[in-house]
């Protein structure tokens, strides 16, 4: 069996008996101009192979793209869920062979069997199992498979060779409806748990290959809590027997399998060309959704002085502090394999470093880390103020010059485990303790203002006498 990735949820499947196009989105942008396939790609329409079966999983416009459907042959057999509006639209477009399928319906084409799988998200929608003599491929698309559904599929097909799995727990509507933007541990745990029950021979993250664009692009910072790299790593921990058979399919990639042997080739599809992959724009950063942190440098620090002091801190002082306290202050960071990403926003640019606490010698690595799970974003002038101990954390946090969030967990075959929220502390807050910095600044303030002796008091001082009688303090007369 051969699967060619067109992009997002659009795939071309070739079994021993038929060629199948599923959820075709062949032009960009789509969804009325708010989404684009990610990574960006070009579909060379005139090279699209002939196919004899078209499958639509559900009516959402990133799966049911009317422009694409209007440009395809109308005489192919079309499989859709039990959705009257889908049938109406397809009929109006000119399709004449439309077949509606309910949960666990079967289609047989020669030695190829196709099975629809139930979704607990009653859109209506379905996943699809493709089976032929070469093996079994389950495309779950956006469907939510229950344990009963997994049991049923496993009763029919004890070994799923390849799983195209739903993996993201998208949060794009959370902010708009005043809901929590914290990392969705429970929902993600369920995603990984289902994969652990299915135990496929190979897996790819399915769908979620898109980005928001134009006025909706701000949603990219809360859309995908998990990086694709992290998901692939998590799957290997949940299903260690899967080995290296975790394939991050991009547009233009091809996966072929037969008898549980897999061949994965990148960018070899003749009708899809990947253009660019700027994955950093999809990095989860819920503290930046109303606008990125800006350093207006309110104290007019010299930019060169700031850069020099900050690089000294990041490359030498902070890592030395971490190593010196690895077995005390940072015990939990090491135990939970924290990867700390520090972003410092300068007035003219931004820099990122990461510190991997799973390593023996913890040193800063420049740039984004897709596996980071503890994040700090701070303006350069605020960080410089900490180094000079002239501004307290109270000022830095309340002024909005510092932001941070966590998504720390460890996936296991028995579910996600996570630390108590207070166990993992921002390393720079340990390096510059709140109370210590506050006392230092207060002491400096006292030294500064105590030079103004009594002669400059606004009002003349009056001497009074207080005496404590039992638990009561009593002011006495002159």
Short description:
The protein has helices at residues 66-70, 84-93, 147-156, 185-198, 220-223, 228-238, 303-324, 331-335, 380-388, 393-398, 427-431, 434-449; strands at residues 2-7, 10-14, 19-22, 35-37, 40-43, 53-55, 77-81, 97-101, 106-109, 112-118, 126-132, 135-139, 162-165, 202-205, 210-212, 254-258, 261-265, 272-276, 339-345, 350-356, 365-366, 374-379, 402-406, 410-412, 415-417, 465-469, 472-476. It is an alpha+beta fold and 478 residues long.
Please characterize this protein's 3D structure.
With 478 residues, this protein is α+β, with helices and mostly antiparallel strands. It has two domains: 2-283, Ribonuclease Z/Hydroxyacylglutathione hydrolase-like (Metallo-beta-lactamase, Chain A), CATH 3.60.15.10; 292-449, Nonspecific Lipid-transfer Protein, Chain A (2-Layer Sandwich), CATH 3.30.1050.10. Helix content is 24%, strand content 27%. The chain contains twelve helices and 27 strands. The strands form seven sheets. Strands 8-7-6-3-2-1-16-17 form an eight-stranded mixed beta sheet, covered by helices on one side. α4 links the parallel β13 (162-165) and β14 (202-205). The radius of gyration is 29 Å and the shape is elongated. The mean pLDDT is 92.
How many structural domains are formed by the residues?
A: 2
Q: Into which percent range does the helicity of residues fall?
A: 10-25%
Secondary structure tally: strands = 27
**CATH overall fold name of the largest domain:** Metallo-beta-lactamase, Chain A
